[in-house]
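Memo to structure team: turn this sequence into structure tokens by end of day. - J.P.
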Amino acid sequence: MYTALLIVFGFITGTLAAHYTVLPLPYMLAPLITAAFIALGFPKVLPQAYVFPMRFRLIFIAIIGLMIGARVTPELVASLPSYWPSVVAIILFVIVAHSGNTYLFHKLGKYDKNTAFYAAAPGGLMESIAMGEAAGCNIQLLMLQQFLRIILTIVLVPVGISLWTGAPVGSASGVSLAIAPHVPSFSELATAVAVGAIGLLVGLKLKIPAGQLMGPMLAAACVSVSGLTSIDLPNGVINFAQVVIGVSLGIRFKGIAATMIRTALWLSLTSVVFMLGLGGGLTLILIKVTELPPLVLLISFAPGGVTEMSLIALSLAANPALVSLHHLVRILLTVISLWFFGPRGVRD
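Reply from structure team:
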């Protein structure tokens, strides 16, 4: 009953945020904020021993993994050779940003190495949280750092570009994560369910890190790249999955200290400024060897969400598909590095 009520409240706040605010990722952040507000402000509302059902959440993490993998299209793979200088720069960005952030969080923030490693990921918000949870990280710190990265980037980049261009840029509230606006047919839904279920079972059976996310993601990517079929889900399903994940994360803020929030905030601000500076430096190099516009390159390196950064590009009459391409490469590279190098590579 408590879980159902939390999800209902989360869905209501997510819907309101999507339609009436400029909150990024409204269907996940609004429920997360709602659940965190209940956990922090009214801890006695829930039973002391209440825990969000993890098996229930697992299904919705698999849905998100499925949609991430479905974005790895044949066109995306085919277009990569045309942009090899910027793709190489993205690889360099991921390596340097992740290493620098890990050092920042571990040495200055005094986080344990596992938490610092996953909190330092310059992309893959849900993926880093899922993998970090499996690696035994401090999940409260990890969530704080990853969400602050997204929020601060989405705040700083539009403000900076607006000051530069003299005109405001758009927001991402209410934007769907679905690939296409159409309503999938029964056969398309059946295909998505089958691919997701197979990927989930394989991911869990093979004990892949964050298998509930990586299994469906890899399965969907293989099916999508093969060209056999496309995978898509209704907007409502994807939005509801974000609500469930947001509520399940927000409820974990019960008992979090104000000092932890303050520490996470200054660390995140330092980290985001460092990454934006790194992206700016790489942009200055790339404009001399490519024909890509400076603003497109700058937005492509910003460590925010794909949807948000693509909308900013759209508002500037830039190429949102190109920006999306670079962000998907950044996120996929980050997820792969988390998969291969953690947690073995970060043990004390």
